[in-house]
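Quick question, first post here. What does this chain look like in 3D?
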Amino acid sequence: MVTIRSSNEIILSLIDYFRLNQPNLDTKPGAVARDLAIDAPANQIALLYDELSKVSTQQSLRLVVGSDLDKLARNFGLSRKTATPSAGIAILTFSSIVGVTNVNKGDVVIANNGVSFAVLTGIAVNPAQTNFYRSIATKYSANFAFVGITDQYAVEVSVQATTSGTIGNIGQYSINRTSIVGVSNVLT
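> Answer (accepted):
Ran it through. Tokens below.
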């Protein structure tokens, strides 16, 4: 790997070189020899080192990022996988179930960072199955207690982020809002 040298390092090397070969040459700042034979070439060589550093970085799988990584991968016939939306399970809770509550495909739940997630498959919450919904709530009772939810009924629904990429990667308890009619609370 190339050692990238700064302008000052190059200047000091040139001064040392001239001191050995021309001991009487004036190399103080502002001297003609310093301006013409040391500083000017050193600055140009430093620019070449900068360009060499950029090329080196763009050829390193460890250091290259963004579109430069895509370009490097194309040299080998590869491409990066495109971003996909995050998906997971959201738990919708109900304080009571008096009538059929529809959770439709495309209904939205929102995380505390503002990212919205759409319900992937709809479900009809039927009051005739309250024991089933109570069992789901019991399964998550410790999670509910942690965030202060006291609802006694719950359903699990699959959700997917409405935007692709890492912004949809959220932690547990991050989904906390919804406007679905009949749903009291939501969490992940």
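The mean pLDDT is 90.
The chain is about 35% helix and 25% strand.
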